[in-house]
Design goal:
Layout: H1 4-12, E1 17-19, H2 28-31, H3 56-68, E2 72-76, H4 79-89, E3 97-101, H5 106-114, E4 118-122, H6 138-147, E5 152-156, E6 163-164, H7 167-176, E7 180-184, E8 208-211, H8 213-216, E9 224-228, H9 235-245, H10 252-266, H11 268-288, E10 295-297, H12 300-303, E11 309-310, E12 314-318, H13 323-334, E13 336-338, E14 340-341, E15 345-349, H14 357-372, H15 394-398, E16 402-406, E17 419-421, E18 426-429, H16 437-448, E19 453-454, E20 463-467
Parallel strand pairs: 1-13, 3-4, 3-5, 5-7, 7-8
Antiparallel strand pairs: 2-9, 6-11, 8-9, 10-12, 12-15, 14-15, 16-20, 17-18, 17-19
Length: 468
């Protein structure tokens, strides 16, 4: 049996084209991310202390803050998950209410659980045709804050599909009501480096944002950054929770990777390469318009309130009911590995790390598949309904006596566990929420479409844990 290392080496040397994370796209020489064994150290003399930085680590974090235009920028070595946990924990008291966009990542829900919070949900716009979840409207945030005593608001912008909310207006609404705005900007770490991308949440007035450098920039998997600005955040609490959620054995390889990534992107070489990347990307996107049965999303003239802005680096391809088919066809026949497949669409992630010749290969593959598809196979769209009824806080639910029930008989019960499609890790059901017939119907439909639903203790997805 091959080891994991053997399998990774085999994939690294293969001809598979990586339209997926991380953003360095297996291109170590270009970004100076060669084998790191020689620089893999722990906290030794002369290399500062990650949790109490006074020297070089403090210097490189201050440098990042200047580049991103923030008061503080903290290197994260446990991914954006640790940043979300930190930001939320530093913004609330135990048992508070918090306003959460229902399309947030599961890390947000873990923070809700750990802090005993009661989540009050706001719902993103939904595209009638594809079911894609879009922006959270400022009016929705304002309406929620007028009814709530919530001290913090958490939204995701951009979404996994690259759709962006009007963060500037949302920040203004939050601040008028005395609430802190936390933006999960995990998929927008590249926004800071070119005007062709949406404006960063920090520059729009958010109090804290979390970015996964590894998702879209040339940095190692698990590297991220937490930005803090303004006077509404207790920076002492932020540092305290960072010391809790970050490892006590920090990777200097990861820190060096973050430092190298930011330096490269801000350098003349990085800016020039970014221009080349964007020129190739825009040409590729224009070429995709010739497809007949596979549709590039979003399309400005069709979307109304679905988004305020969108990220052109995300290639979202819609083909109703054929998302998994398209994903597998590209992977097995053309050796093009995409980021993810939903029932009705796929996502390919591009980055500055791409070989721009890949775009021509990808385009030719799509043209061939598009020709083979019959227009009749692209059926009418469907709207994805999401409406969670919170009956108990997650912590309350997980402390109750439970019973295992057949999933199909659980409507009306309160869930004691969660389920989600991963990626992107947005919960379909969460502990403390009522299970509805609509929810069960959606889960069944996802399973029939080949979308894997994860999280349930029963790996077959036939039973669910409910409050007794």
């Amino acid at each position: 049996m091959n080891t994991l290392y053997d399998k990774l080496e085999e994939y690294g040397k293969s001809d598979y084209i990586p339209f997926h994370m991380p953003g360095h796209k297996r291109n170590p020489e270009k970004f100076g991310l060669e084998s790191a064994t020689e620089i893999d150290i722990t906290e030794i003399d002369g290399f500062d202390d990650y949790h109490y930085p006074q020297g070089i680590i403090r210097d490189i974090e201050e440098q990042a803050a200047k580049i991103y235009g923030t008061n503080y920028s903290f290197y994260l070595l446990n991914g954006s998950t640790s940043g979300l946990l930190t930001a939320i924990s530093a913004s609330v008291q135990y048992g508070d209410r918090i306003i959460v966009a229902r399309n947030c990542h599961k890390a947000v829900y873990n923070a809700v659980y750990l802090n005993g919070l009661f989540p009050e949900y706001v719902y993103p716009s939904v595209d009638e045709e594809s079911g894609i979840l879009g922006q959270v409207l400022p009016d929705e945030i304002e309406a929620a804050l007028e009814k709530s005593k919530a001290k913090a608001v958490v939204i995701t912008s951009p979404t996994y599909e690259g759709l962006v909310s009007d963060v500037e207006k949302i920040a203004s609404v939050c601040h008028e009501h005395g609430a802190v705005l936390i933006v999960d900007e995990a998929h927008g770490a590249h926004f800071n480096y070119h005007d062709s991308f949406p404006k960063t949440a920090m520059r729009c007035g958010a109090d804290m944002t979390i970015e996964s450098l590894h998702k879209t920039l040339p940095s190692y998997t698990q590297t991220a950054i937490l930005h803090v600005s303004g006077k509404r955040v207790d920076i002492g609490k932020v540092k305290r929770y960072l010391s809790i959620y970050q490892t006590s054995s920090p990777s200097y390889v990861f820190m060096a990777g973050i430092n190298r990534c930011i330096d490269y992107m801000a350098s003349t070489e990085g800016k020039n390469e970014n221009e080349k990347y964007l020129a190739a990307l825009k040409n590729f996107r224009n070429s995709l318009q010739k497809l007949k049965n596979i549709k590039l999303l979003p399309q400005k003239e069709e979307y109304n309130n679905l988004y305020y802005d969108y990220d052109i680096s995300k290639i979202v391809l819609y083909c109703r009911g054929r998302g998994v088919f398209l994903y597998e066809k590209l992977r097995t026949q053309y050796h093009i590995q995409l980021e993810m497949a939903a029932a009705d669409y796929v996502i390919a992630m591009t980055s500055i790390g791409d070989d721009y010749g890949w775009y021509e290969i990808f385009l030719n593959a799509l043209i061939q598949i598009d020709r083979e598809m019959k227009a009749a196979e692209i059926k009418a769209g469907r709207k994805q309904e999401i409406c969670a009824k919170v009956c108990l806080t997650p912590r309350e639910a997980l402390e109750k006596e439970t019973v295992v029930m057949p999933l199909e008989e659980s409507a009306g019960k309160i869930s004691a566990e969660w389920a989600y499609a991963y990626p992107p890790g947005i919960p379909i059901i969460y502990p403390g929420e009522k299970i509805t017939e609509l929810l069960l119907e959606q889960m069944k439909e996802m399973k029939n479409d080949g979308v894997s639903v994860k999280g349930l203790q029963d790996e077959k997805g036939e039973t669910i844990l409910c409050i007794k």
